[in-house]
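Team,

Forwarding the record for the chain on the shared tracking sheet. I've put the sequence and predicted structure together so nobody has to dig through attachments.
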Amino acid sequence: MSNLPSHLKYAASHEWICVEDDNIIRIGITDFAQEELGDLVYIELPELGRHVEAQEQCAVVESVKTASDLYSPVSGEIVAINESLNDEPEQINDSPYESWIFCVRADNLSDLNQLLDAEAYQQLINQ
């Protein structure tokens, strides 16, 4: 297992979360998740402007093995999607922590209190 970036937060559903300015939360999937999924072949991105609730399913990644739902870690509005993944979903396999999937403008940053730090996420995936 590669080192987990310590500046990120993690969801038990294997998304990584980067908190940016103006309550913007950038979301991708972890290295562990992409390894488990295998080669990604398609990503269903969420709709721009859509309001999501914390823990709501809002995107899907599909691999040669299976499909997996992605969840928003916070309630808020989808303000950006990584459209380059439409043509090159394998970017996530190549560099999971640089290849974000979508961004949410959080209604309330307290939603982040439910997330894991790198150490706690490492313990989760080691189980």
